[in-house]
Amino acid sequence: MSNLIINILDSNKELTELIISLLQKKDVTIVILFVLIFFLPSLIILFGNKYNLKSVVICNLLLGFNPISWLIILIWAINSKTNKTHKDIAQVCRHCKELIRPAATVCHHCHQTL
Fold first, then answer.
1. Is residue 91 domain-shared with residue 53, that is, in the same domain?
2. Which of 1, 28, 52, 98 has the fewest CB atoms within 10 Å, i.e. the most exposed one?
């Protein structure tokens, strides 16, 4: 894994020099800010309870060093669909306690009006 990170950093010498210079200055706040901005697409998708979590995180790790790729991944994370909850898919009939469609006016199990 460390060889992969070193290869990615070697492909972008300017970014490598920037990270090394920030670490040499021991300015931790800038490094933390840089890491948070770099992982912003992953954080959006993680805390937004959205689909494609693994795909976005992997792409963010491997392609996030390129600003254009990072921007595309950010747009992908923002526009990703959220996971549907049980209440979004169905509701429970108050008479027979069976699952029915949210827009139903009559339960198709017990035929009671809702």
1. no
2. 1
- Report the Cα 3 to chain-centroid distance in Å: 25
Same domain for 91 and 75: no
Per-residue pLDDT reduced to its tens digit, 34-64: 888 899 998 888 887 677 888 888 988 888 8
CA distance 56 to 76: 8
Distance between first and last Cα of the chain: 57
* Residue 87 identity: K
Distance CA 76, CA 84 (A): 18
Same domain, residue pair 59 and 15: yes
Indicate the pTM of the whole model: 0.51
Domain carrying residue 68: 2-79
The predicted-structure confidence for 1-37, as pLDDT tens digits, reads as follows 456 555 555 656 666 677 777 667 666 777 788 888 8
